[in-house]
Amino acid sequence: MSLDRYPEVKHESKIMQKTSASGKIKPYKYRCNICSKAFLAKHHLVDHVRRHEGRLYRCEFCPKSFSGCRGLELHTPVHTGKYPFNCHFCTNSKRFNYKKELEAHEAEQHGKPLTVLNCKNCRKAFRDKQRVGPHQEKCIVHH
User: Fold this and answer.
1) Cα 82 from Cα 138, distance rounded (Å)
2) Positive or negative: CA dihedral 66, 71, 72, 74
């Protein structure tokens, strides 16, 4: 599939923006030429267009289908029981699709402290490097 027919959106409007959790406004860059829905990332547009074209990732165990392969990857363990993250405290070895789900479970059920990363400037707490890094680059503490 060629994305040439799905060019970047050249203009911004109030409708074409999304406010992130940090309050930053991000312009939607990609628009579907079929239904005009806009997306921040090209891969989200690709997954969306697959739905229009009927090109979906289908589960081999049930009738469900997904526009992206990640959706299918996260769904498949429902049938296979092969989840990537296991609780080592639980006697039945409870399993999770996401590391953050496992960490939250271990903190809530077993008292294991959550991993916390603090901004070196303001000491604001974050749970992962992907969030503390960009924050820290922009963070200015006023004394």
Assistant:
1) 40
2) negative
**How far does Cα 120 stand from its chain's mean position?**
26
| Range of 10-19, 76-85, 107-116, 121-130 with top mean pLDDT | 76-85
* Residue 141 phi, psi dihedral angles, 5° rounding: -90, 125
Q: Write down the residue that tokens 């165990």 correspond to.
A: 61
pLDDT, one tens digit per residue, over 78-94 is: 899 888 888 888 878 88
What are 38's two structure tokens?
């806009």
Q: Which pTM value belongs to this model?
A: 0.47
Q: How far apart are CA 40 and CA 34, in angstroms?
A: 17
Dihedral (CA of 51, 56, 59, 60) sign? positive
Retrieve residue 98's tokens.
Answer: 């996401």
- Quickly list DSSP for the chain: --GGGSPBP----STTEEE-TTS-EEE--EE-TTT--EESSHHHHHHHHHHHHT--EE-SSSS-EESSHHHHHHHTHHHH---SEE-SSSTT--EESSHHHHHHHHHHHH-PPPP-EE-TTT--EESSHHHHHHHHHH-----
